[in-house]
Amino acid sequence: KAGVTQTPRYLIKTRGQQVTLSCSPISGHRSVSWYQQTPGQGLQFLFEYFSETQRNKGNFPGRFSGRQFSNSRSEMNVSTLELGDSALYLCASSPRTSGSYTGELFFGEGSRLTVL
Amino acid sequence: KNQVEQSPQSLIILEGKNCTLQCNYTVSPFSNLRWYKQDTGRGPVSLTIMTFSENTKSNGRYTATLDADTKQSSLHITASQLSDSASYICVVSANYGQNFVFGPGTRLSVLP
């Protein structure tokens, strides 16, 4: 069974640009969540999608957005990039069913974003 | 405020030695507690998941304990190996699994 796939693995952007990251969950998993990881702040929850609907949202500005497609693949977008957005962005899928216990989180390898 | 604290922040041990990592949490309502191992530049990988009623759970050389009364958990690593060098993250799930609170992690270095 293929794991969680994130693309691209590495990317470099400049301030003011926007970026789109992609996540393909494990087959059969309908829940996809996104996290930002920085050395100073650790792992921070961005948002979670289930069946194309955002179920939970962390405390991030509106420049961070996401969506989920009917095949459960998800994308997150960061607009007007700032230097502080440099981080490892992790995606996780889980076998969550609607309204129930989330179950195990399976993480991808992450997309490392550097903003210059 | 829901919070997870981990100690020590970093730890260096010699190969073959044992070590114990600590996790204290103030998360309510508690759903479960997970330990993850994250190698540098990689995504976290689950080691154990413990619910309220579980006191101990093992995964090979990794043994996690949970004291729901004191809201403390520990991860004990036996006979450490060089490949154990990684960050270990404690994650507490609240509100029937709806929300996750992450600890800052403990950075473990195992030296030959």
Rough outline of chain B = globular
| End-to-end gap of chain B | 41 Å
Helix/strand-derived category of chain A reads mainly beta
Number of strands of chain A: 11
User: What gross morphology of chain A would you assign?
Assistant: globular
Radius of gyration of chain A: 13 Å
Rg of chain B, alpha carbons: 13 Å
Q: Mean pLDDT of chain B, nearest integer? A: 92
Please write the string of helix (H) and strand (E) elements of chain A. EEEEEEEEEEE
Contiguous uncertain segments of 5+ residues of chain A: none
pLDDT average of chain A, as an integer? Answer: 91
Describe the structure.
Chain A is 0% helix and 52% strand. Chain A has 116 residues and is an all-beta fold. Chain B is an all-beta fold and 112 residues long. Helix content of chain B is 0%, strand content 62%. In chain B, strands 2, 4, 5, 9, 10 and 11 form a six-stranded mixed β-sheet that branches. Chain B has a five-stranded antiparallel β-sheet with strand order 1-3-8-7-6, with no helix packed on it. The mean pLDDT of chain B is 92. The A-B interface holds A 4, 33, 35, 42-45, 55-56, 88, 90, 92, 96, 100-110, 112 and B 31, 34, 36, 41-46, 49, 89, 91, 93, 96-100, 102-105.
Short description:
By secondary structure, chain A is an all-beta fold. Chain A has no helices and 11 strands.
Features:
heterodimer; A: 116 residues; mainly beta; 7-stranded mixed sheet; 4-stranded antiparallel sheet; 0% helix; B: 112 residues; 6-stranded mixed sheet; 5-stranded antiparallel sheet; 62% strand
Topology:
The complex is a heterodimer of chains A (116) and B (112).
Chain A: E1 5-7, E2 10-13, E3 19-24, E4 31-38, E5 42-50, E6 53-57, E7 64-68, E8 74-78, E9 87-94, E10 106-107, E11 111-115
Chain B: E1 3-7, E2 10-14, E3 19-26, E4 30-38, E5 45-51, E6 56-59, E7 62-67, E8 72-77, E9 86-94, E10 99-102, E11 106-111
Parallel strand pairs in B: 2-11
Antiparallel strand pairs in B: 1-3, 3-8, 4-5, 4-9, 6-7, 7-8, 9-10, 9-11
